[in-house]
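Reading is simple: the token line describes the chain's fold. The lines below illustrate.

. . .
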Amino acid sequence: MRVALFVTCLVDLMRPRIGFAAIELLEAAGCEVVVPEKQTCCGQPAYNSGDRASAAMLAKKTIAEFEPFDYLVAPSGSCADQIRTEYPGLLADDPEWHGRAVALASRVHELTDFLVSVAKIEKIPGAFEGSVTYHDSCAGLRSLGIKDQPRALLARMPGVELKEMTGADECCGFGGTFAVKFGDISTAIAAKKCDNVVATGADAVVAGDLGCLLNIEGKLRRMGDEKTKVLHIAEILAGDA
């Protein structure tokens, strides 16, 4: 099957190795992977800020670029959710684009969900020795049901010990533009999350959304924690940590 990787803005700009790790994992699952060169933002920041015109423009661009493929896979629950859940409603008043949005939505998956539910990957290519604690990102968990999938993949890595944190399913305080608009509240939420991470004693905190990871890592370092690794699930699974 031909899978198109939606890299996401944050991965492209802040930690490209996540994208390469995702490609390695998809290829290990037997997929032909294509990375459309002209892809840009999914439109989520504009959508969340009320700029529906810009969000719709970016939605149409994304649909046109990704609809030729069997699946669209993103190493981000929030971006996958935007394309899969919000595009049909955003384009509801445009019959042609609404139909195309619905058709694409049925083939959109977050990375770990795709590996477990669709590709049914047999062998995890990477190796990691140490303990990890997993943070459930809000959009992936609450809208896409991403919870058991990453844990099932981690459980198949002999060197990994999973230490569940208190409040693993609670927000890290990022929330995209929320962290900018409500900085004090975001900081307090992040502090609670980081306290829970540190309390596990895990070597690394792992998640499926880079936005969450950047927020958690920034707060951990400001709290004086230079030891805890902050890793995307794709980096662990591909052995690129």
